[in-house]
Each structure stands twice: as C-alpha cells, then as structure tokens.
Design brief:
Layout lengths: L3 H23 L8 E5 L4 H12 L4 E5 L3 H8 L9 E5 L2 E5 L3 H10 L5 E4 L21 E6 L5 E7 L3
Parallel strand pairs: 1-2, 4-5
Antiparallel strand pairs: 1-3, 3-4, 5-6, 6-7
C-alpha cells in the first residue's frame, strides 16, 4: 500500500495537470502571433486583407505609412515581390494578398526564409475578392522568398 503522503502528492500532481491538458485540447496553447501590417491609409484591399486575417484567428495591428517602398526595403523584402502591403509576423515577412492558411503553414513549418509573397494584386486572392470583382479569379502563386532574394513556389492557386 502506498504511503498516504505519496498518494496525496500523486493526486495533487494529477489535478495540477488538468488545466494544461484542457488548454492543449481546446487549442488555447496554439495562440497565433500578432501580425503587423504596413499599408497606406486609403488602401481598401489592404483593409480587406486585414479582415481576412482577423476572420482566420489572427490579431492584426495595421500601421499606416505614407509610402510602402521604403518600409519594404527596410524590412528586407526584395522589391520584385512587392504588392500593396507588407506584414511582419513571427520573424517572417508576408508580402501582398497571401491566404491566411499559407501564413499559418509558414509559422508551423518555419522554413529558412525571409517570408512569403504574392507579388502584384491578383484578383480572387484574399482582399482582392470583393463583390466588385464579380467572382473573377486569376491564378497566382505564393512564393517562399529566400534570404538570397530568390524564390520558389510555396503554394499554387491555379484552379479553384
């Protein structure tokens, strides 16, 4: 028979573990980092992309800047991958209208890279998919931007 103090200690340890196991099972331990979005004040599609991220569980801090090009250069995203907004999250940059699921994947896989980008502003991408576009969809790729400035396809959105 176990010693009474040992049994009580085991019981207390088991009870102490319950909140942790509940947090893990409910996803509370998987909190997403805040996304800082650098954008110009009048850009409606940037605001729509922010709403897309928020709808997908991200906390977002929009930061209005008069000109995005110097900010993008200062942060380290090569100009050839540019779009209308640049974001910073979890040590990575996210350029343009990247779907939230690819941002989650980037944070989950943690590749050696500057970040991910959807160059330009393809119609049908998050933030470029409002009623004004009448359901039009342009194919596009999400690029993984390497530290040397090169890129490779991270995800393709060619058929929907």
């Amino acid at each position: 028979m176990p010693h009474p103090r040992s049994a009580r200690r085991d019981l207390l340890l088991a009870l102490a573990a319950i909140p942790l196991s509940l947090a893990l099972s409910t996803g509370a331990a998987q909190k997403l980092p805040t996304v800082e979005v650098f954008k110009t004040p009048a850009c409606g599609c940037c605001d729509d992309w922010v709403k897309h991220l928020q709808a997908n569980g991200f906390q977002v801090t929009p930061i209005n800047v008069p000109d995005l090009a110097p900010v993008r250069a200062r942060l380290g995203m090569p100009a050839q991958y540019g779009s209308c907004h640049t974001a910073r999250v979890g040590g990575y940059l996210v350029e343009g209208h990247v779907p939230a699921r690819e941002v989650r994947r980037l944070l989950r896989e943690r590749p050696q890279a500057i970040g991910i980008a959807v160059p330009g502003m393809p119609i049908g991408s998050p933030g470029m998919d409002g009623p004004i576009y009448k359901g039009l969809q342009q194919p596009y790729d999400v690029l993984l931007v390497q530290r040397d400035g090169s890129a490779r396809v991270f995800a393709s959105y060619h058929k929907r």
